[in-house]
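USER:
Working in pairs, take the chain set out below, taking as long as you need, and write a paragraph about the fold.
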Amino acid sequence: MKSKKLTFLESLMLVAGAGIGTGILTIPYAIDKIGIFGTVLSLALAYAVSAVMYLIIADLTRNSEKPGDLLAILDEHLFSGKGKKVLNITFLVLLVLLLIENLVVYILCAGNVLTDLLGINSTATQIIFYALASVVIIFGVKGMGVGEKLSMILIGSAVLVLMVLSFLNMKGSLSFSFGSPSKVFAVYGLFMFAFSAIFSIIQVCNHIEKKEQTGKTIIGGLTLNAFITMAFTAAVIIGSDTVTEIATIGLSESIGIPFVKILCSVLVLFAMFTSFWSSGFAFADVVGGQFGLSARISWFIATVPALLIAVFLPLGVLDYVQIGAGALSIILVIVVLPAYYNAQKKPKEKLLLGSCSGNKFMITVVAVAIILMAVSSFIPIS
């Protein structure tokens, strides 16, 4: 790790890995209820909106004096006047709640998998996952980049093997149907949450070696996320007798080979690692920026509360995912889009959205799409 900057591949894997977390595990269950045509529509809409939103966040970050964390960026471009302090504190609280919720989801998912694999109680497995995930803080952002790259290679390899095994042991089939509009709408929201990579976009913009590769990295990461998610979904639906809420459970039981259970567990664990690292570092950046603390101390202040909540307030994983989708949409619409509109008026760096930058119609469409994401979080999947 001679260079502290992220290579193109590490940056791309960081963007992809930040989104491949709980989404890849919960989406197959939802998609199984709507069919291919409904899935294509919800996926296309979520991909398009996410791509534009990614580039908006990148342009906002690249044109900020202090791009280290989202709160500092918003403080520069949005919070001003007499109410600046109140706005700053309000958003800080909202951001903290969202980041903690994200981290709780990753700890719960990983803990469930380790409990099933090792046969020990969930509290112990949650602590084990947290301890392993926290090792990366020793190596900083570069360590996260290398970890994301290796994790994504393992995830992709695991999905490929599972696809082969599923096609050799077909138990289910893909339905060429549309599904009810409400469920298609709900799946759109899940895709939006699965593609969410706000914090990794900021991290890439700040740490990528070649700034001119930022746009390609961002879209490449989103595309890889979508490809792996859909490949895994196809494997689950085709290879499972019953698609379970946490997809790997039903798949491993249906194929019935002990090796598959281990492979599914590895996939889940590394998917949780990639997302946990991105959110954890983002949270640590906020804590460090607000209180002037070192990266390591900030990491533990930021992440330990999530471990405690996971241990003492274990809601269902899908409940947390949908809550997170709603909270994320509030942040994007209320603060990020207005901040971007202000930042792009006098850009310091070339805008990735080019001539579309600052287009009020585009921003309005994105805002509406994200509000719909929030609404979708109230629609039950089952």
